[in-house]
Amino acid sequence: MSTIRLRATIFGIATLACLCLGAMIDPHTTLAAYLIGWITLAAIPIGGLLILATTYLVRRAWTDDLHPVLIATTAALPLCGALFVPVLLGQSLLYPVAAGADVPAFKAAYLAPWAFALRTIAYFAIWSVLAALLARAWGNSARMNRAASITLIVASLTISLAGIDWLESLNADFHSSIYGLLFLSFTLMSSLPFVVGFGLLSARRIRSTRGYGGLFLGTLLLWGYLHAMQYIVIWAGNIPDEVTWYLDRTRGGWQYVTALLALGQFVAPFLLLLSAYVRRDRRWLFSICAATLILRDVEAALLAFPEIHDLNVVLLPFATIAALLFIASAFVLVVARKFSDADGYLNAPAARA
Amino acid sequence: MTASATDILPTDQSIGDVSSQLTGIPLHFPARRQWWIAMAVAIALLALFIVSVVELFTRGVGIWGLNVPVTWAFAIHNYVWWLGIGHAGTLISALLLLTGSEWRNSLNRFAETMTLFAVVCAGIYPVIHLGRPWYLYWMFPYPATMDVWPQFRSPLEWDIWAVLTYLSVSVLFWYTGLIPDLANARDRARRRGWQVFFGILALGWRGSTIHWHRWSRTYRIMAAIAVPLVVSVHSEISLLFAASQLPGWHSTLFPPYFVLGAAFSGFAVVSVIAVALRAMFDLKNLVTRKHLDVLGKVLLATGLMTGYGYVFEVVDALYSGNPHDLQTLLNRTTGAYAWLYWGAVFFNFVPLQLLWWRQVRRTGWALLLISVSVIIGMWLERYMILVTTLYRDFLVSSWSHYTPTFWDWSTYVGTIGLFLVPFLLAIRFIPVISIFETEKTLLDEQETRDG
Fold this sequence. Notes:
The structure holds two protein chains of two kinds.
Chain A: H1 2-25, H2 27-57, H3 61-74, H4 77-83, H5 85-89, H6 91-94, H7 105-110, H8 113-137, H9 141-166, H10 179-200, H11 210-237, H12 240-247, H13 254-273, H14 276-280, H15 282-304, H16 315-347
Helix pairs in contact in A: 1-2, 1-16, 2-3, 2-8, 2-9, 2-10, 2-15, 2-16, 3-10, 3-16, 4-8, 8-9, 9-10, 10-11, 10-15, 11-13, 13-15
Chain B: H1 15-27, H2 32-59, H3 74-98, H4 108-128, H5 155-188, H6 192-201, H7 209-242, H8 254-280, H9 289-320, H10 323-334, H11 338-349, H12 358-361, H13 364-390, H14 406-429, H15 435-449
């Protein structure tokens, strides 16, 4: 594990240097790329909180199987909050309201930079406390139920509000009441393949994959359903402030990214997971998890980039990769011990074996 | 940390006793008096429905309280309410089958039965509210020989496809699940009439391995079709409103909000029926306090999810800053129909909080009262969504109010008779609880107990 930490330190320093260089060339583009990298990876521990709480309430094999990975993953929440500081400091470079856009009074007050920052701090404080509460409740059935119930209620509301803050508000005119739920499903789609993929790395922990395949299929359907419903309602209503959100994603090259996401993130895994063989096969399931994690970055980019104008298209892909590697390195570095514990747990003979 | 499997059925009862107890309900009906009283009330309500429909067809929809701008009220309101109730039957049965939740086995049969008749009550509304019901066939998917095409981009057109598909799948799913029990009733029947009746319906079932294998596959495939169908059908219902441009209706959250609301109200009705049948047929050994506990938990969970919809409807209206959305929000919370909004909030969510306590969930009458509160709350919610958006039109000169007339109420109350009459007939003539699935649960638990 120490080798991994050493590598993470080297990667972290190198990518941070790249990001600093990018910021000197074009701070606007670099910060936009950083936001995407951050959203992609922060969604894993945020969604993990919901999955951990659900495993406490629905006690099946997954409660044991995924517990160490989920505890390690959610322990990264305070770090995620700390890594958002560059975005908070550079709000005016990305968010129209912080840059002085003319918006209705409530929105202007709600998205004022200080209110935005305070809420973000509150979200991470709340989620970190909930993660600690869940970790401490382990082993005591009544406490597990209580902690999980509180977590699901509070986290569902706050994650939805966070999605509105961090992504929806990139477009000052757009609003969609399903957006919070879309972001919630975004975090689930990031977190589930991560924890299942990590669990699959150990042959002892996840022994039967069929249930996880079904679970992933269900999450995929939820994600696809929510996107489809937003699209149908906006298409039918045909109101300018709303349809422009889709028009921006179906022209200027973004139509190809949209098609890639629709086919790669929904159609292909959906058709594959219909097969009982694929759901049972560890390698297939692991491949689908890995592909999904890569495509999370594509969805984050599709949600955010079309709203941020005047991006340097040459710098953007390099900055995005640098941001992803930097944040991933920081995760590995800070929560390595937790993952080490999880890894030890995974490789230890299972209690039921 | 996986909890050890807890028995949901008492294991000190024999498989044969369970079989005799359940087939005994249609063969030697134990609650004739209560059944006839309930049937008399149901028939009276059905008669009221028939009179109301005859009056409607004779005099037209003018007998209802509709006006401009409230051109759409009780008919669509009760349509959505009934269809929502119906969805829980399929959800309980199909979703829990796919997730391997054994506790469904004591509840799925009457939940599915309830679905069928609730969908019929819902489906009757679009027919009678047409004004010219003899043109109903225009909406059907038939070759348009008159060159008058339906508007295929309208959710109103999608509606008839959705409901017909849902009804067809629900009937097939319900009947498929019933086949082994019909054979069981056939084999235990002593009178020739019952033997022929159940014999025909059992489709020659002999319980061979190949029969079970094919049946099991068919049942699971149908369940896998039914679950997305429930979600898509009720999402489509929400599009009747959300696809418009009206403030308060045009909301992207409506599809999941409606689906969850449907499950919420449906589980409330399932809880009411479970408590009532448990008392009526003395089924405490099969619909146990643990079943009530689980039903209470599911009701609480779906209620909280529905509450999410309430919160984010308000959040989005405030966030958008759109003056029309804000005005609609103000009308809902402080306007002439604020009692509907706050009534829905109260009845849906306040008594519901008692379900956090285990003792309340396991007490039949408490669960019954909370469920009735939810049924009222969800009825008020649909009323609120409809009227509070329509009564304040974009033009102030068009503002008006809506008051349901006697015929609105009589039609609605009559549909309760339309639901109860076939439902009471069903519990009289078919096994009200799935026999073979209950036996399987019991057998599994007994085997676990005996190691």
